[in-house]
């Protein structure tokens, strides 16, 4: 586990060697978490937690971000008082080549098909 600090706050992230396929797939299987990942993938920079307008409670949103971070899908860090989020695209591509791109492409096609 690596620790990233910001203003005395510590966030733990798995080392790339500790990221497991089943954990990544579990994280991506939830519609709210997949929505976060799709938005992060299309963003040009990190996004704060407050950027996301999920139709769930704040505590549930916090849970979803924790699952994404602990599975190795995202990296979270503090900049001032904002907690920022970024995809661990390079780590995921090195460990599971093509997985993230395939999931994002499938999610986009599903969205178009269902008109959501």
Corresponding CATH superfamily = Winged helix-like DNA-binding domain superfamily/Winged helix DNA-binding domain
Fraction in beta strands: 15-25%
Count the E strands. Answer: 5
> Strands of the largest sheet, in order across it?
3-5-4
> How many domains, as an integer?
1
If you had to describe this structure to a student in words, what would you say it looks like?
This protein has 116 residues and is of the alpha+beta class. It has one domain (2-106): Winged helix-like DNA-binding domain superfamily/Winged helix DNA-binding domain (Arc Repressor Mutant, subunit A, Orthogonal Bundle). Helices cover 50% and strands 21% of the residues. It has five helices and five strands, in the order E-E-H-H-E-H-E-E-H-H. The protein has a three-stranded antiparallel beta sheet with strand order 3-5-4. Helix 1 packs antiparallel against helix 3 (58-71). The protein is globular and about 40 Å long. It starts with a strand and ends with a helix. The mean pLDDT is 91.
